[in-house]
Amino acid sequence: MSLSRNHLPVKNHSRRPALWSSVILFALGALLSGVLARTHYRISSHEQEQYVERLGDRIVAGIEQQFALSRTITRAFQALFLASDSVSEAEFTQAFSAIHPEQTFPAMVAVAYARREQVGTDEHYITRYIEPRVGNEALVGLDVALQPANLSALLTARDNDLPVVSRPFALIQSHDPSMPNGMVVRLPIFSAGMPPKDVEQRRQRDIGSLAMSIRLSALVGKVLADEAQPRLRVRIEDVTDGGVLLLFSSHDSEQADGTAFQRKLDFGGRVWQVHVALGRQSGTLLVWPWLTFTVGLLLTAMLTLLIWVTLNTRYRAESLALGLSRQSRESEYRFRALNELLPALVALVRASDGGIVYINRAARSLLGMESVESYRLDNIISDVRIRSSLVRVAGGGSPLVNEVVQLQGVSGRRLWVTLSVSLIELDQQPHLIAVANDITELRELNDRLGYQASHDELTDLYNRREFERRLAQAITLVDRGGPPAALMYADLDQFKLINDTSGHAAGDRLLADLATVLRGQIRPNDTLARLGGDEFGMLMVNATAEDARDSAERLRRSIDGFVFSVDGKSFAITSSIGVVMIEQPVRTLRELLALADTACYMAKEKGRNRVHMHSDMDAETAQRRSEMQWVGRLRRALHENRLRLHYQIVKPAHPTQCDDGIHFELLLRLLDDDGTLVQPGAFIPSAERFGLMPLIDRWVVEQTIRHFDTLLPQSATIALCAINLSGQTVDDESFADFVIELLRVHAVPANKLCFEITETAAISNMSRVVQFMEKLRAVGCRFALDDFGAGMASFGYLKSLPVDVLKIDGSFIQNLETDLLSQSIVRAVTGIGHQLGLMVIAEWVSDDRLEQLLRDIGVDYLQGFAVHMPEPVAWRPADAGDA
To answer: Which of 816, 807, 883 is nearest to 850 (CA)?
Structure first.
């Protein structure tokens, strides 16, 4: 049976109310659109104000950073004068080149040093040094004392030891002299030593003033370069003296929007006012609110139309209900079919009891499930926290999103996934839909990367970064009242010898083997790390000084008992270990590492293969400080030309030997501040430790060649003059050319010079030493291997070293009459030296009986107090003044 039109529901009577409803809805929508547009306008205005505020904050922070950079640079120059008694113009220029202020601080125009000088009863500050020199020559000689404002700023900076900034002025280099485009940051210069602590000390130690001139436009331009905002308007004024002095303006003629930023800056006694705003852009703030209003009206119209459509199509809803129900059943089928193809893990779980209703193929494969019967979500998730979260979601709580969870399969296999769980309703029953992505490989890779980031690849010990992190934790724990801890620093003795003789691969294998040995000697809670090279560190928590010493000794003995074999060679390995206790008052991490390094150094100084416990009362520490004081004394002696040369004659062991003159060795002395002569044993170790030997060796060689003809009395003929060289000098690539040029200029025969190098220095970098020797031997110079037998060398090295003379170490000579082993060693060295065509010299010859014994052994030359007591060279010390 079909329905006629008369049987259909009549709905014309409802169209009029629908029309009024649509009109009212449209009016309300228009009103709401207006409200939203006004709100949008307010929000846009507020956002622009916040944007300008952030811009202003960044600009102010950038200017403050530039101020801080200028302070840092001037402090660096101040530190130069504090570190040295006398800073020459060349050193000032060298410091300027090393600091590179023109690169790190482009706004800098020049850095000048004005020296404090007494002229009559008046004090003057006269500019002596300035960098860069070009373009600033006119400032040299300028007296700051003649400028009251400048002098006042100088004195203020001196009394407070703080930077003082001048009033802005027009730079000479400026294109617009009317614009105050420059300023000067001034800082006092004090005499060498620790920084003065009060005004009286500052005035007493005042030796001058440092000034840095700065171009303001460059300083501000550096800050604004990072702000890519074409509408940005910046204006900076100096308001220090109550007035307003314009320093910088980015756009003078263009007006800005109402939103603006204003803040004061205070640096070096000057106060700047910074204004930041955005240039006007017509209609910008109104565009988006109008667009909001237009869209609102459009949506209102569409909604009104939708109501009309809904009223006209309402009758279709009932016919569609049956179709939607059918589509729902079809959707469930498609859901299962689609999930079977997904690589992600998908599961459907009953919310009531956690029973698994469905899992897709990927989940069944990874978890090893053939079916889902009798399986619950608890069977595969053991994490109590995640279980509690699932109960919360099942009760209607917020979904679980991308939670990292470990799942356990039927076979026991574990895998890591990111799990998301939501609550859905299916067949009017609550269910949980769970989706997981397998991240097991990514998790394992992340764990490996984390392990590699904290462990040394070669030894599998902790690396320096992880060690310092744990050390910082231990320091914090002790600082909060926890038990004391101990820091150990171990360095292998003669590790470089193994690297040089057997290659780096052998050295790496040694480090890996030693790591295995050391790992078995520490407590479970201790931290053992490789800090770099052949250096190891150990951190002991909750340890007394006795515990630390015992543990360090255990480590030392384990290394001492380890014999390393490679390529048929065996090496006995030892180590020097420094120990520092971490206790109240707690030091910083860097201080503790430095103290541990110093303690390790003391262990090496005391003979290696030992443990040294750090103490503030260490005599060795005091000795090292004394050695560091020698650095300043040696520099003054070099500057004041107070080094002196003595000579000691080396005579032939057999009078029948053909001799064409005197063979002697030059010895160095130092004329101390009180006029006494200091033996080299007092200052040479400090010079070697702190890198001054190349300067001393250059002085000795230059004075020797320059005054070669006046070294000995006029009647004496020089056959061979021996000069000692340090290992640091041999490593200087320019030293050989320096010697060759001196020989050419002063016309001294090269075959009359013999350079002595210790065997330890010779084998430390054999390829470099051989290259150095060959270059000087090519012009005729000769070489002697000094102190042979005292170091680590073997006879095999003699075939590789191009030496002419072999000097037997004095330790074998002094007890030669009573020590049969020493006699055997001296005979062996003499015999092998002669087989290699070398001249053999015995040192430390102290009496006539020793001379005769050495002649019988076959030594070629004798040297010692029994042969000749050292005496000054013939040329007067005053002659050194022309050097």
So the answer is: 816
Percent of the chain with pLDDT over 90: 27
The C-alpha angle with vertex 563 and arms to 558 and 568, in degrees rounded to 5, equals 165
Strand runs labelled E in 753-810 = 753-758, 782-788, 805-808
Express each pLDDT in 47-93 by its tens digit: 878 888 888 888 888 888 888 888 888 888 888 888 887 888 888 88
Give the three-class secondary structure for 640.
coil
| Six token digits for residue 526 | 């201790």
Residue 194 class from Cβ within 10 Å (0-12 exposed, 13-18 middle, 19+ buried)? exposed
* CB contact at 8 A, 367 and 409: yes
Q: pLDDT by residue (tens digit) across 328-362? A: 556 656 666 666 666 677 888 888 777 887 777 77
Answer yes or no: same fold for 55-229 and 342-440.
yes
447 SS3 class: helix
Determine which helix (DSSP H) or strand (DSSP E) holds 828, and give its type and residue range.
helix 820-835
Residue 128 one-letter amino acid: R
pLDDT attached to residue 724: 94
Structural domain boundaries in the chain:
55-229, 342-440, 455-616, 627-871
| DSSP annotation string for 31-66 | HHHHHHHHHHHHHHHHHHHHHHHHHHHHHHHHHHHH
Just give the CATH number of 455-616: 3.30.70.270
Q: What is the rounded (10 degree) CA torsion for 85, 91, 93, 94?
A: -130
- Crossing angle between the packed helical segments 464-479 and 589-605, to the nearest 10 degrees: 110
> Which residue type does 560 have?
D
- DSSP secondary structure string, 309-343? HHHHHTTHHHHHHHHHHHHHHHHHHHHHHHHHH-S
Residue 12 confidence (pLDDT) above 60: no
CA 510, chain centre distance (Å): 28
Taken as a whole, the chain contains a residue count of 883
Tokens of 690: 């702190």
Q: What is the pTM of this model?
A: 0.38
Query: Do residues 412 and 426 make contact, with C-beta atoms less than 8 angstroms apart?
Result: no
Picking from 879, 881, 804, the residue whose alpha carbon sits closest to that of residue 836 is: 804
Largest CA distance in the chain: 154
With b for 16 or more beta-carbon neighbours within 10 A and e for fewer, the 820-854 pattern comes to eebbebbeebbeebeeeebbbbbbbbeeeebbebb
Of the CATH numbers 3.40.50.280, 3.30.450.350, 3.50.30.10, 3.60.15.10, which one belongs to the domain with range 55-229? 3.30.450.350
Break the chain down into helix, strand, coil percent, rounded to 5: 45, 25, 30
CATH number of the structural domain 627-871: 3.20.20.450
Partnered with residue 190 across adjacent β-strands are 206
* Token code pair at residue 756: 């002595």
Residue 469 banded pLDDT, cuts 50, 70, 90: very high
| Cα–Cα distance for residue pair 364/370, rounded to 1 Å | 7
| 538 bridge partner residues | 488, 528
Express each pLDDT in 581-608 by its tens digit. Answer: 998 787 888 889 888 988 888 888 788 8
pLDDT of 554: 93
Q: Fold for 342-440, please state it.
A: Beta-Lactamase (3.30.450)
> How would residue 14 be classed by pLDDT, with cut points 50, 70 and 90?
very low
Residues 6+ apart with CB under 8 A from 523: 540, 551
The structure tokens 């004005």 sit at 114
DSSP state letters, 176-230: -TTS--EEEEEEEEE-SSSPP-SHHHHHHTEEEEEEEEEEHHHHHHHHHTT---T
Residue 214: Cβ within 10 Å count: 23
- The single residue listed with the structure tokens 């905002």 is 229
Give yes or no for a contact between 798 and 806, defined as CB atoms under 8 angstroms apart.
Answer: yes
